[in-house]
Amino acid sequence: MSMEMKKVEEEPEAINDEARNISKRLLNKLEAERRYIARELHDEIGQALTALKISLQSLQRINDPEQLSKRLNDLIAMLDRVLNQVRNMSLNLRPSLIDDLGLTPTIRWYVDMISATTGIDIELSMVGMDSRFELETEIACFRVIQEAVNNAIRHAKADKIEIKLEKNMDNIQLSIFDNGCGFDVGRAMEYAKKGKSFGLIAMKERVELTGGKIEISSAYDKGTFIRASFPINRS
Ligand SMILES: Nc1ncnc2c1ncn2[C@@H]1O[C@H](COP(=O)(O)OP(=O)(O)O)[C@@H](O)[C@H]1O
Ligand SMILES: [Mg+2]
Question: Ligand 1 in contact with 156 (CB < 6 A)?
Fold first, then answer.
């Protein structure tokens, strides 16, 4: 009886540990995102608005209407860039596009935005992807792409990324390839489980929560290949 009792006692402990680990990682991730937003607001948006204010003040001293009109046009262009930055920031955090128009237009927007801001060549192919899917599936799929592309830029130093999506009878197949430096996936996962990083784990958890599967393979100097499948049309 005592052995039985012990076993019963041990299990919830292990589950609690796991749950505590996950919530710790989630909180870390939340803090990291807030730090990112704070920095972005301060460094990017704050800077741009300060520059705009100074430029506006200098307009007060201009009498020549022609010069004034030229400077005003410059300022409007500057303001447009800030507006774009705010829009991209907000879309990155939670693309309203995904709620309104779905996965395909969101991915198109994202890929265009990343190519335009980084100059990286992203090849996108989508087959049979015109319909809408369950919102959770669409969000999971988009977040996997976002994380993979972020990693390819930040860590892999890739100059080429290929994203393919294909709708089958009962799933969406996603594959993402980058031609960057590659990494040791097993080691990165071990490291991540200790709470050191969250991206790859969150990717895996998101896919698995939709009932899907993910495989990450990578080789030094050859690049990284991620394949994920998301079930659809479940009854
Ligand atoms: N596409 C990639 N190319 C090269 N290294 C990668 C790639 N994706 C992930 N890594 C490596 O795996 C580590 C863990 O990635 P991740 O869990 O996304 O955390 P983070 O991006 O916050 O560092 C990264 O720090 C990096 O060393
Ligand atoms: Mg990452």
Answer: yes
CA angle 194, 203, 85 (to 5 degrees): 110
> Which residue CA neighbors atom 27 of ligand 1 most closely?
155
Q: How close is the Cα of 114 to the center of ligand 2, in Å?
A: 16
Point out which residues pair with 124 in neighbouring strands: 163
For 188-218, what is each residue's pLDDT tens digit? 998 887 777 788 988 998 999 999 999 999 9
Q: Do 63 and 105 share a domain, yes or no? A: no
Ligand 1 centre distance from Cα of residue 215 (Å): 15
Task: Check which CATH number belongs to the domain holding 134 and give it.
Answer: 3.30.565.10
Buried b (16+ CB within 10 A) or exposed e, 95-110: bebbeeebbbebbebb
Whether 206 and 176 share a structural domain: yes
In this structure, the answer to whether residues 57 and 117 fall within a common structural domain is no
Query: How much is the average pLDDT of 161-186?
Result: 97
Q: Are residues 119 and 209 in the same domain?
A: yes
Q: 41: CA distance to ligand 2 center in Å?
A: 21
Q: Which domain holds residue 132?
A: 98-231
User: pLDDT tens digits for 33-58?
Assistant: 888 888 888 888 999 999 999 999 99
